[in-house]
């Protein structure tokens, strides 16, 4: 059973700021998170419990619950800005 993917409302705002080609790649990458949610790199410090996947110069940040088989994508932004908000 594939993991269910949910998006935080901030992701919609983040996506509108991105170039079209990155938005298209984003949805393909999120699909791969649904197939293998543990593929993302675990984050440390303030973001402990979250994972990231690279999308060129952008990062997709999400949390995964194995118990609920659920991944919550809550950020997509450039590598420089993703951890600042």
Describe the model.
- This protein is 28% helix and 34% strand.
- With 85 residues, the protein is an alpha+beta fold.
- Strand 3 and strand 4 (58-65) form a beta hairpin.
- It has a 5-stranded mixed sheet with strand order 1-5-4-3-2.
- It has helices spanning 9-16, 20-35, and strands at residues 4-7, 41-42, 50-55, 58-65, 70-78.
- The protein is built from 2 helices and 5 strands, in the order βααββββ.
- The chain has one domain (4-78): 2-Layer Sandwich (YaeB-like fold), CATH 3.30.2310.
- Belongs to the RelE toxin family.
- InterPro entries: RelE/ParE_toxin, RelE/ParE_toxin_dom_sf.
- Keywords: Toxin-antitoxin system.
- This is Addiction module antitoxin RelB.
Short description:
Helix content is 28%, strand content 34%.
Key traits:
single chain; 85 residues; alpha+beta; YaeB-like fold; 5-stranded mixed beta sheet; 5 strands; 28% helix; globular; toxin-antitoxin system
Strand count, sense and closure of the main sheet?
5 strands, mixed
What is the mean predicted local confidence, pLDDT? 91
Shape: globular
- CATH architecture descriptor: 2-Layer Sandwich
Radius of gyration: 12 Å
Provide the helix percentage. Answer: 25-40%
Number of DSSP-assigned strands: 5
Runs with pLDDT <50, length 5+?
none
Strand content: 25-35%
Q: What is the CATH first-level class name?
A: Alpha Beta
Q: Can you tell me the CATH superfamily?
A: RelE-like
| Strand order, largest beta sheet | 1-5-4-3-2
SSE arrangement, N to C: EHHEEEE
Family: Belongs to the RelE toxin family.
Protein name: Addiction module antitoxin RelB
Keywords: Toxin-antitoxin system
């Amino acid at each position: 059973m594939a993991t269910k993917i949910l998006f935080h409302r901030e992701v919609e705002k983040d996506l509108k700021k991105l170039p079209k080609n990155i938005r298209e790649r984003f949805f393909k990458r999120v699909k791969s998170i649904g197939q293998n949610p543990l593929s993302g790199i675990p984050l440390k410090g303030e973001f402990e419990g979250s994972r990231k996947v690279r999308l060129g110069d952008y990062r997709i940040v999400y949390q995964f619950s194995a118990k609920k088989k659920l991944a919550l994508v809550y950020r997509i932004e450039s590598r420089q800005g993703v951890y600042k908000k």
